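Technical annex, item 7. During the second reporting period the consortium partners agreed on a shared format for inverse folding records so that results from different sites could be compared directly. Each record opens with the tokenized structure and is followed by the designed sequence. A conforming record, contributed by the partner at site C, is shown below for reference.
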């Protein structure tokens, strides 16, 4: 208002130059009374985070594979306000950014480590452990003696936060969400559960005792099981036909058709000194066909003596044919 008033007075007494001077003086009066104008960037109205529902299965992971996790704990979005400008009559500009802290369960079986992490398909954490976005990252391997995460203990209270023992999970603290539309992105993780390919014996660990399953699956790099063990074995049976024996006190599983190795006999051909490819051992060949049986041989004999006479008669015919 003062800008318009002083501009009009200046124009009345000093013409265009007086109007410009009056407007400048009026703007200073407005700034002193009202303050400089402020501009604000985009701002969220809802800071609550949707968490996972009860009953979501957490897989048992074997080998090395890429998997998605399940959010098991989260804070609401935290708003960060940054105001720039506003000095010497210039307008100020306020921007808002958001971060979140949350925990993601990965495996109900202990893991050896975490490799790369992708957020909405883009690399969030490199193989060397460098984060591509602001925030802190912690990994809990899932052993039976692991301690509660310090962030969860601070948020829920000492003694009130579970340690999630026997559950491998990760914690993101103050992860900056500006690159993900100010929301928690869809995350996938490269996890290492074993330093070798999955084995049949490892599938039963912690589930069934007294099992003998000396089988390896070298062609499978990673394996994830979210349901009953029987369903997993039925899927493996399609690629690796399996047999089992439940008659004894120990469950035995082996590959179908697998047996003990058979030792072969010594070769019939060998090389001796002074000979090349000399053949040793023995050989068999089929005898020539028998000549037509005499009448006495065509009749069924009832006594052993007659039968022996018939066989002798047949042998005599064969010998006679050889002497010709």
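Designed sequence (site C submission):
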């Amino acid at each position: 208002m003062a800008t318009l008033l002083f501009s009009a007075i200046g124009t009345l007494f000093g013409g265009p130059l007086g109007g410009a001077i009056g407007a400048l003086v009026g703007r200073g009066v407005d700034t002193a009374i009202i303050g400089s104008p402020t501009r604000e960037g985009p701002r969220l109205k809802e800071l609550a985070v949707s968490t996972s529902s009860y009953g979501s299965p957490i897989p048992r992971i074997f080998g090395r594979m890429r998997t998605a996790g399940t959010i098991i704990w989260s804070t609401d979005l935290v708003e960060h306000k940054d105001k720039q400008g506003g000095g010497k009559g210039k307008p100020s500009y306020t921007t808002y950014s958001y971060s979140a802290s949350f925990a993601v369960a990965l495996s109900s079986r202990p893991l050896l480590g975490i490799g790369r992490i992708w957020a909405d398909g883009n690399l969030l954490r490199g193989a060397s452990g460098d984060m591509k976005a602001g925030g802190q990252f912690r990994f809990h391997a899932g052993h039976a003696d692991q301690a509660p995460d310090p962030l969860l203990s601070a948020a829920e209270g000492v003694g009130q936060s579970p340690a999630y023992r026997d559950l491998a999970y990760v914690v993101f603290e103050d992860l900056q969400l500006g690159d993900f539309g100010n929301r928690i992105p869809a995350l996938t993780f490269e996890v290492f559960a074993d330093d070798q390919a999955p084995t049949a014996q490892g599938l039963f660990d912690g589930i069934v005792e007294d099992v003998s399953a000396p089988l390896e699956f070298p062609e499978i790099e990673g394996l994830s099981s979210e349901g009953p063990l029987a369903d997993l074995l039925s899927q493996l049976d399609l690629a690796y036909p399996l047999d089992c024996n439940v008659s004894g006190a120990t469950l035995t599983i082996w590959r179908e058709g697998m047996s003990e190795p058979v030792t072969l006999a010594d070769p019939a051909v060998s090389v001796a000194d002074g000979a090349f490819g000399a053949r040793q051992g023995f050989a068999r060949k089929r005898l020539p066909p028998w000549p037509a049986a005499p009448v006495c041989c065509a009749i069924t004999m009832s006594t052993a003596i007659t039968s022996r006479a018939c066989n002798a008669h047949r042998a005599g015919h064969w010998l006679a044919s050889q002497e010709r």
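The radius of gyration is 44 Å. Confidence is low (pLDDT under 50) at residues 46-50, 293-324. All partners now use this format for quarterly exchanges.
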